[in-house]
Amino acid sequence: MNRWACVGALALGATLTVTGCTAVAPTPSPSPTASAPAEASVPALGSLDEIAGTRWLVDDSQGDRTTVIFGTDGSVSYVSYGDSFAYPEDTWTLVGDTLTWQLTYGARYGVWTCSGTFDSASQVLSGTWTSTIGESGTLSAVQPIR
């Protein structure tokens, strides 16, 4: 092959290489995305008579949030900072329209006695708490979306 033919072949090869590198990659067609599952809504309670078997997010005046579960057997269990607790002495009672329950937080925070009433229009349980270590405050609770 003569020199000009060799240069031409190299130029053609370089052109093909550069063209191949600069070609725009095909844009993938968007694939259908599944829509996020809709969150279930919490059934509205008509009154506290329906509290058994429900779970509530309780915010207290100290700035803490506790998930409280009112058992169908009158027991109370709770989740605080990711840890679950259930003590046999923690129970709930309903007298008229006032719900009272106990939470055992241990020696540092004592045993809390909580009492509240339920507003069926807003679906909010609000009330007060007192502890065996002499503290007291307010609370507000709503059912979380499941």
Q: Can you walk me through this structure?
A:
- By secondary structure, the chain is mostly beta strands.
- 14% of the residues lie in helices and 43% in strands.
- The protein has a domain at 48-142: Lipocalin (Beta Barrel), CATH 2.40.128.
- It is built from 1 helix and 8 strands, in the order H-E-E-E-E-E-E-E-E.
- It has an 8-stranded antiparallel beta barrel.
Summarize the structure.
The protein has one helix and eight strands; from the N terminus they run αββββββββ.
Query: Helix-strand pattern, N to C?
Result: HEEEEEEEE
Alpha-beta classification: mainly beta
Total helical elements: 1
Radius of gyration: 33 Å
Beta-strand share of residues:
35-45%
What is the overall silhouette? globular
The tally of strands reads 8
Average of per-residue pLDDT values: 80
CATH topology of the domain at 48-142: Lipocalin
CATH class of the domain at 48-142: Mainly Beta
- Low-pLDDT runs: 3-12, 14-19, 25-39
Label the CATH architecture of the domain at 48-142. Answer: Beta Barrel
Provide key terms for this protein:
single chain, 146 residues, mainly beta, Lipocalin, 1 helix, 14% helix, disordered N terminus
List the SSEs and their pairings.
Elements: H1 3-22, E1 54-60, E2 65-70, E3 75-80, E4 83-95, E5 98-104, E6 111-119, E7 124-131, E8 136-142
Antiparallel strand pairs: 1-2, 1-8, 2-3, 3-4, 4-5, 5-6, 6-7, 7-8
